[in-house]
Amino acid sequence: MGDGSLDQIKEQLRRFAADRDWDQFHSPKNLSMALIAEAAELVEHFQWVTEEQSKSLPSEKLAEIEMELADVQIYLVRLADKLQLDLLAAVEKKLAINEKKYPASKVRGSSKKYTEYK
After folding, report:
1. Does 113 lie in the same domain as 63?
2. pLDDT tens for each residue of 22-43
3. Residues 12 and 23 occupy one common structural domain
4. Does one domain contain both 11 and 65?
5. Are 108 and 67 members of one domain?
6. What is the pTM of this model?
7. Could you give the C-alpha distances from 43 to 32, 51, 64, 78, in angstroms and in order?
8. Domain ranges, residue 107
9. How far is CA 64 from CA 37, 42, 49, in A?
């Protein structure tokens, strides 16, 4: 996969879908549904464990989680590509928004939503 840049991953996913004639199924609707299904599979690994247990999972469980994270990333990248959105630019934009919504001087150590401390 090369250096693993987002553009390389996007191109590899395009080829993967094209080689299998799956692009016809990769509508934004279907990709968003697949994304949430994979996110749910990720969450299952943490269901019924304590906070402390979630921080020290056995290696075989971490390997399973790694694959679920990969699935989530694959569908996320594919969805952004189909919608012609620049995922990295969106992340930068959102981080800038969050910097303003959650100034460290006001929220340090708090999990409150920004609407609760204004």
Report:
1. no
2. 999 999 999 999 999 999 999 9
3. yes
4. yes
5. no
6. 0.88
7. 17, 13, 12, 21
8. 86-118
9. 15, 9, 16
Structural domain count of the chain = 2
Q: Are residues 51 and 92 in the same domain?
A: no
Task: Render pLDDT for 85-98 as a digit per residue (tens, 0 to 9).
Answer: 999 999 999 999 99
Q: How far apart are CA 96 and CA 102, in angstroms?
A: 10
Same domain membership, residue 73 and residue 90: no
Buried b (16+ CB within 10 A) or exposed e, 16-45: ebeeeeeeeebeeeebeebbeebbeeeeee
Q: Which amino acid is at 78?
A: R
